Amino acid sequence: MSKFYITTAIPYVNAAPHIGFALEAVQADVLARYHRMISDDTYFLTGVDEHGVKLYDTAKEVGMETQEFADLNAEKFKALREVLNLTNDDFVRTTSDRHKKGAQKFWMKLFENGDIYKGSYKGLYCKGCESFIPEKDLLDGKCATHQKEPQELEEENYFFKLSKYSDQIKELIKTDKLKIVPESRKNEMLNIIGEGGLYDVSFSRPKDQLPWGIDVPNDQTQVMYVWGDALTNYITALDFEGEGEKYKKYWPCDVHLIGKDILRFHAGIWIGMLLSAGEKLPEAVYVHGFVTSEGQKMSKSLGNVVDPLEYVEKYGADALRYFLMREIPTTDDGDFSHSRFVDVYNSELANGLGNLVNRVVMMTDRYLGGKVPSVTEQGEFGRKVEELLGKYHAGVMKFNLKVALETVVELINFGNKYIDDKKPWVMAKEDDSEIEVVLYNLLELLRFAAYMLKPIVPKVSEKILGRLDVEGEFEQEWGGLKTGGQVEKGELLFPRLEE
Fold this sequence. Notes:
Isoleucyl-tRNA Synthetase, Domain 1, alpha/beta, 499 residues, 19 helices, four-stranded antiparallel sheet, six-stranded parallel sheet
């Protein structure tokens, strides 16, 4: 049994969750569920980032204590576990004692290795990003992300010697010892490092400028800047501070799943920190794009921010999960449109999957008394099913969940076409014994489809398997559906939407 440890980025808690993080959370959950399905020892971590000037100022603006405000929004992110039907094993908060102690221990490892030093820093600081931005990265003098001019700050801070590890990081990425998916993001990171290399980064802020953060363990006048605080969550959540069993069992991380805007932090600064601390490095960084809304960037002023909770309440978590994995390219930008959501729901969930399940179960009930007929030879039909299963596995392992799901759609369409070609209702009238072969093939196809869909639409998958009288691990060989099982009818899985 292999182990598989996956993390999401930890979103900032100054606002409620939106569809962009829902995409990341579902992608991570699909990977975690898939690895559990293939019997890997899986650990899935998510959480929230709760420190920084932006949170401190926002709390003041709404008249709340900072911790109280952080608690309020942290609960909204924690609730996504139930809302989106996630299976995260842990939820880390950067205000928790376990994280603070772990982050301080990590700081001291870097300090004792001679990689943290004190110096004066003058730079352009973006409050929205909570980071200093090189002048070359500004667009018309403004932060490219927040469209605001940064303020000039000069402070005495601690710095981390990231430049010391620049060549090593570059080589790790070039040779895929640190795998970055997709390839375009690997090339982007190599371009960021470039000829000049990575530069040292500010690693703390004066407490009089940032009173809300984790104390620097060897200087009570400073608090940790975001790198030493937020990035360490991936290891502090495993009891790095006590070097506990989870840390020994699951570190290093197999996949850090992040958005494209924080690639340089995870594939640059974080890797340098781990090298300095003498810790094992993550296997891979998977990078997804952004979600637009109705063809435009989401913004409160435009009123086009997609609230995942609204879609779940109206259509169910499985429908939202399906659309995000099907319609948003896994490693690229994609658009969330309500009309497209309805189209995909009706054409693929109602007419495709739901219709196939209903037809096969109804015909088995009508023509065979609801009993699974004798196991048939694999034949050309079964070989096609196993071929698509292979494409599905390849899609997941290459972090192309859209391709994996497209393979299941192809399988469902193959099943519906097979029904139309074979016409079991005509066979039944003619007392054709081949009807048992046809229905066994279709029932077995449904079993494969249900398991392949399990990481993506888990509730619907369980309903389908329940109707087929199947439980337990995924038997990936043809003939897993046993003779004599009782097939049960049930309500429509996806009633058509009339909107």
